[in-house]
Design goal:
The complex is a heterodimer. By secondary structure, chain A is of the alpha+beta class. Helix content of chain A is about 15%, strand content about 50%. Chain A starts with a helix and ends with a strand. In chain B, strands 1-2-3-4-5-8-9-10-11-12-13-14 form a twelve-stranded antiparallel barrel. Chain B has a two-stranded antiparallel sheet with strand order 6-7. In chain B, a hairpin with a 4-residue loop joins strand 2 and strand 3. Chain B starts with a helix and ends in a 10-residue tail after the last strand. The chains are: A alpha+beta, B alpha+beta. Chains A and B meet through helix 1, strand 1, strand 2, strand 3 and helix 2 of A and helix 1 and helix 2 of B.
């Protein structure tokens, strides 16, 4: 059984080696907010519990948040947002997974302008999407900012004609996250 | 025996080693997503919007309103629909009214007050959400406590026909406590159970107990996003036999049964219903409902709720 004694250390050596070979940055308290503006009404909501993980080695990343974590100043709006528009009971999360196109070393300190290509999923609809943003790396921290627009129609979010003048067709979404090395 | 175990262990380790070599070097997007999901699944997902409003029809629901939000309730119960067209325009000629306000002190705790034209009664109540339904817990439990003051002149005639005399102001008070237990089964169906205790400081006849226990059932079924059916039934555990034996008259009160619809239009909730009760507070409709469905004493009524937000940054416009 000498082989067993020999094998176990190798096993753990390789096993732990795997997790060290990747540089992961992550957070579970990222901020994602959206803004809908029409002449009649401005609606703003923020989600401060968004999760994000970036693999700095490969440039791959994933963002996920719970739709019910969006906070509106008017709670009635929040209820309608969840019940009538995003149907968060049926589709509890919204997410993006993709890869950063540019060949940059994200582990290096400094400002990197990045473009992520991938799939966005919300309201049960998945769409290919390109999101532009910046990553500011300093040591073990990574500051991620991004901004993009969502057309409600593209994700089959129905806005009844009664309130169509109060909810914008194109919603601005911004994200602000500080990721730490895992 | 121990050799066998070692052999199995060896096989597992070897298999694991081979498996590891097969794993591609980078952690793929889906793995990142899985890591996020694992992280987020630790927090419970709370059920929202079990009911459309803080009231089902006459009674309350488990819902409270959010912090710094104010609800204005305007409720009407018209006359009996069988009271004739010429004489009473199917009941619409007359109405009992209740105006009420409720305010969210926290997201789980509200206070409310109202005034009913029925027996010119003021009511004050508080509601606290003790337990919340989530993906890890099956029900929501809300506690309700209320107090009412009857401000009619002494010696007035009640809806039941009895004369009510007050010897002191204490006799004008009524109290109630309620446990509201609800479960949202799916997007459409929510059911609620309401064990209730009511105490009347003064009742119209000595054969009627000052304390009343009741059990309510209610629920809603959403037809569309904005249109909901609702129903409510309160079984009062009163003792009609004792009253009939003592007075020789029929017990005047019946169990309250109501059915209705909720229509939601952004800032407002409209509740339209038919009920055999004209009271809109617990002490009235649970214990002192005079109408009965069998006799056709059905009243048309509505509640309108308007919510205002006093949270910073909120504009009080319809969505």
């Amino acid at each position: 059984m000498k082989i067993l004694k020999f094998l176990i250390p190798i096993y753990f050596l390789i096993g732990t080696g795997y997790s060290f070979s990747q540089t992961l940055f992550g957070t579970s308290v990222g901020e994602v907010s959206f803004y809908s503006d029409t002449p009649l009404e401005a609606i703003e909501a923020v989600n401060k519990k968004s999760g994000c993980i970036i693999n700095a080695t490969s440039g791959e990343l994933a963002v996920q948040l719970r739709v019910t974590d969006f906070n509106f100043p008017n709670k009635l709006m929040q209820e309608h947002f969840n019940e009538n528009y995003l149907e968060s009971e049926k589709y509890p999360t919204a997410s993006f997974k993709g890869k950063i196109k540019e060949e940059v070393d994200l582990t290096k300190s400094g400002n990197h302008a990045v473009t992520a290509e991938g799939t966005m999923t919300m309201h049960g609809v998945s769409k290919p999407m390109v999101v532009k943003g910046t990553i500011n790396t300093s040591g073990s921290e990574m500051k991620l900012d991004f901004k993009f627009q969502v057309k409600t129609e593209e994700f089959q979010i129905e806005v009844p004609s009664l309130v169509v003048t109060k909810i914008a067709e194109v919603i601005d979404v911004t994200g602000k996250m500080i990721l730490v090395k895992k | 025996m121990s050799l066998n175990i070692k052999k199995i262990l060896l096989a597992i380790l070897l298999a694991g080693l081979i498996g590891m070599l097969w794993i591609p070097k980078s952690i793929a997007q889906d793995d990142l997503m899985k890591m996020l999901e694992e992280e987020q699944s630790k927090e419970p997902i709370y059920t929202i919007a079990t009911f459309k409003a803080t009231r089902m029809i006459n009674g309350q629901t488990i819902e409270t309103i959010s912090k710094n939000h104010l609800n204005f309730w305007m409720s009407h119960r018209f006359g009996a629909v069988n009271s004739g067209f010429i004489a009473n325009f199917f009941g619409l000629d007359e109405a009992k009214i209740r105006l009420g306000l409720e305010y969210g002190i926290t997201d789980k705790w509200l206070i409310g007050a109202g005034r009913s034209s029925l027996e010119k009664t003021y009511d004050f109540y508080t509601k606290y959400k003790l337990l919340r339904q989530s993906n890890k817990f099956p029900i929501t439990l809300t506690g309700l406590a209320g107090w009412s003051i009857n401000t009619m002149e002494t010696g007035y005639v009640m809806e039941s026909g009895a004369e009510m005399r007050f010897n002191d102001n204490l006799e004008r008070f009524g109290y109630w406590g309620q446990a509201l237990i609800a479960r949202k089964f799916n997007e459409k169906l929510s059911l609620q159970l309401m064990p209730t205790f009511i105490h009347y400081n003064k009742v119209e006849h000595s054969s009627i107990d000052n304390n009343l226990l009741a059990l309510g059932f209610g629920g809603r079924y959403k037809i569309t996003k904005r249109f909901t059916l609702s129903g409510e039934y309160y079984k009062a555990f009163s003792d009609p036999g004792a009253y009939e034996a003592a007075t020789g008259k029929e017990y005047p009160y019946h169990d309250a049964i109501s059915i209705g619809v909720d229509i939601e239009t952004g800032g407002h909730v409209f509740q339209l219903h038919f009920t055999n009760s004209r009271g809109m507070i617990e002490k009235h409709f649970i214990g002192q409902t005079v109408g009965s469905w069998e006799d056709g004493d059905i009243y048309y009524g509505f509640n309108i709720a308007r919510t205002f937000s006093f949270e910073k940054g909120a504009k009080n416009k319809d969505k």
